[in-house]
Specification:
Blueprint lengths: L1 E8 L12 H7 L1 E3 L9 H16 L2 E9 L8 H17 L5 E6 L11 H13 L4 E6 L7 H6 L2 E4 L8 H17 L4 E7 L13 H12 L4 E7 L13 E7 L2 H17 L11 H6 L8 E5 L14 H7 L6 E7 L1 H10 L4 E6 L11 E18 L2 E13 L2 E6 L9 H4 L10 E4 L6 H4 L6 E4 L34
Parallel strand pairs: 1-3, 1-4, 4-5, 5-6, 10-16, 10-17, 11-15, 11-16
Antiparallel strand pairs: 2-3, 7-9, 8-9, 12-13, 13-14, 14-15
């Protein structure tokens, strides 16, 4: 059996003023097959899984373009056309194929194209014809469209948030598509719109229970796969919002009944799933004198959702508490990093930190700092993934250790601090720029993790997001937008 794999991933915040370009993909990395399985973070895990499974079955595997960019605003039209053409040229050059496996995000928007993934899948279908099986692995923060489900034979979404199941879902997708290619199964998909817009971490109830229910559903006769679409709230496109996707074996009615069952369960939790954010004064007001540190997530300035990563409200609040040892990071400020590199370790200087990228960055802070650590090539590690962060500096201002970086990225691991020498064990509070991905690694330090409202770019007041293309019949904008799911 001959299998082609490729990937093109970014998550587009249509409200962001940061353009996504080919250079944005090059910063993270554009790879062309055969792929180094140690590269590009999650891409390496997916590639390694597909490669291992193909070898086990004696299949021929052809790897094409893999490109990933940090979330930001829409991709420039010419740049999307360039990457699209290269990916499709790889499909064409591979010749007759039995299976195509695509690793995509699902919320990529380009100028003039609101559904990049649907467009790509349909274009691949036009090349490979109806007999080839097309499988797609998506992020749960996607916009699941009709073009995607009509063009693909199987779509599987990561079910965990934080996303720790890239490889498991890649294996599931491989199995689904290979079984279909051999004629062992006949996958059919059903999608139900849940009319929800929200933020759904899966590490605690009630979302944890809903995710665990997927395994029970997949154990039923005839059900091949079940996925929850969280949706990406900061993408103003027609298909934005939460959905349920079920794949059954040749039985459309079973797929639809099961999807409706899960959609009702999701919808009935809608009030309980509303994010409960704290403000800084409350989060610091009841801090115990000892014990594990308190982890505060600046979700609104999460670059993983397209935010600038240089908002200063949380940092300012920590600095105001002169006796509270804390650590804060990572702040995207390449200019300040360069000033620290020029000054050297041990230097004392006055720096303007953060608040520079645009109107959603807050005010810059003029701080007296001491440079405590430097790196020309800073990294953070998440499991086996080594995430490059560019040149970086650790500075101390008053009681706060601050990590400054040159490559915009959310804080995923304590190693973002400790690889520069920051003594995290001294911190009573650790502030991180992330919505929930930080939880996978930082929860090993402390179970006291809180999401903070700082007024930054990624507002979780979902009812008031300035949608123009996405319809407004959703919860929480409407109390009961889908009575048939109640």
């Amino acid at each position: 059996m001959k299998i082609f794999t490729a990937g093109l991933l970014t998550e587009t915040n249509t409200f962001s003023h940061f353009e996504t370009t080919v250079a944005s993909f090059e910063e993270t990395g554009i790879l062309r097959g055969p792929i180094d399985a140690g590269a590009l973070g999650s891409v390496g895990q997916v590639v390694e899984q597909w490669r291992t499974l193909a070898a086990r079955h004696g299949d021929e595997l052809v790897e094409g373009l893999y490109a990933i960019a940090q979330p930001a605003g829409p991709v420039l039209a010419a740049d999307y056309a360039h990457l699209r053409a290269e990916l499709l040229a790889g499909v064409q050059a591979a010749g007759a194929l039995d299976v195509v496996l695509l690793y995509l995000h699902g919320a990529m928007v380009a100028q003039g194209e609101d559904d990049c993934e649907g467009d790509l899948i349909q274009a691949v279908r036009a090349i490979v014809g109806p007999r080839c099986r097309i499988g797609v692995e998506l992020d749960p923060h996607c916009h699941l469209s009709h073009a995607m489900t009509q063009g693909a034979d199987a779509i599987v979404l990561m079910r965990e948030y934080p996303h720790i199941d890239y490889a498991e879902r890649a294996a599931e997708l491989f199995r689904l598509c290979r079984d279909a290619a051999t004629g062992a199964t006949h996958p059919v998909m059903a999608v139900v719109d849940c009319h929800l817009v929200g933020f759904f971490p899966t590490t605690s109830p009630p979302m944890r229970g809903l995710v665990d229910r997927l395994a029970e559903v997949e154990g039923r006769p005839g059900v091949l796969s079940a996925s929850l679409v969280h949706g990406f709230p900061w993408g103003d496109v027609a298909d934005a919002g939460s959905k349920v996707l079920v794949i059954a074996d040749g039985d459309p009615a079973l797929a639809m009944r099961t999807a409706e069952e899960l959609a009702r369960a999701f919808y009935r939790l809608r009030v309980d799933l509303i994010p409960r954010l704290e403000i800084m004064d409350d989060a610091l007001g009841d801090l115990p004198a000892d014990g594990p540190p308190r982890i505060l997530a600046d979700a609104g300035d999460n670059p993983g959702g397209g935010a600038p990563c240089d908002h200063t409200v949380m940092l300012s609040a920590l600095l105001a508490r002169s006796t509270l040892r804390s650590a804060f990071g990572m702040v995207w400020d390449p200019e300040t990093v360069q000033a620290c590199l020029r000054a050297g370790i041990g230097a004392s200087l006055r720096l303007r930190v953060g608040g520079k990228a645009g109107p959603t960055s807050g005010q810059p802070l003029d701080l007296d700092v001491t440079v405590r650590g430097l790196s020309e090539h800073h990294t953070q590690e998440v499991g086996r993934i080594v995430d490059p962060l560019g040149a970086a500096a650790w500075v101390r201002s008053g009681p706060v250790d601050i990590v400054l970086i040159s490559r915009r990225q959310q804080t995923l691991s304590p190693s973002a601090f400790t690889n520069l020498g920051v003594p995290l064990h001294e911190a009573r509070v650790i502030g991180v720029k992330s919505s929930h991905h930080y939880h996978a690694e930082f929860s090993k330090l402390s179970g006291d993790c809180r999401v903070i409202e700082t007024g930054a770019a990624l507002s979780m007041d979902f009812a008031r997001l300035p949608y123009r293309k996405r319809g407004l019949n959703f919860f929480p904008a409407v109390d009961d937008p889908a009575p048939h799911l109640s």
